[in-house]
Structure prediction request, 296 residues.
Amino acid sequence: MADTVYERAKNPEKIKKDTEFRRVVKQLSYNKLATFGIILFVVLLVICLMAPIIAPYDYQAIDLRNKSQTPNAEHLFGTDNLGRDILSRVLYGGRYSITMGIFSLMVSLVLGTILGSIAGYFGDWVDNIIMRALDIIQSLPGMLLTIVLSAVLGSGYINTILALSINGIPGEARMLRGQILKVRGNEYVEAAQAINCSKTRIITQHILPNSFSPMIVQASMGIASRIMTASSLSFIGLGVQPPAPEWGAMLSDARVYIREYPHMILFPGIAIALTVLSLNLFGDGLRDALDPKLKR
Prediction:
């Protein structure tokens, strides 16, 4: 008991953060759909990352003697028009689709956090310059902007991540700016300013930790939307290019065979749907868990 009191007195902020983390985890555990969503996503991610180990065939191996086979004991998801095993291609395709969603979110989140923090804290002409620049980016519909960026940068894995990242920066920056405008006038910020804390320390240690909850929720759902957008770009030929087995590229290759061999388009579509569903379920649960009105 004495040790606990001593720890609370020594590191009150650490204890508070640990308590808040435990509360969020406990709140999430009450939400069965959110728990199912995060478990499903982790399982899908692990399976895709372990594709070199668990994939039954080489995803590039062409076998014209067994082309366009329906699901069977030898090929659980069947084969495509070139005889390539669809299960192996779906597993490897997840490495492209999911990582593009994660990495593009990380880039846009970092840049959006920097811009949103500067605009929200300093305000005045700094805020106006940053926000007007973001207005220019957001003046185009999101999908159209991503298509334009992909066409300019060129197709490929890295270029697709860059296109998705640039498109996501304004939304991240605006949300964080709005949160900072709410908290920058609070007493703890004024106290930090009164004891002459540096602006960098005030932003990183006092403002951001109390403004980041909505960003976390948006990030969990943002991965899902980016996976959908990346698949759409590959479907129209601007994302990852064949023979790379990205899910959208697989759908594009199989669309001409949808009537004769629907299994070729079914399994990549199911993979996209399950991934997006799992992230949306988790995002909904995380939003509720971070809502202080729902504390138990």
Remarks:
- DSSP finds 13 helices and no strands in the chain.
- The longest helix spans residues 86-122.
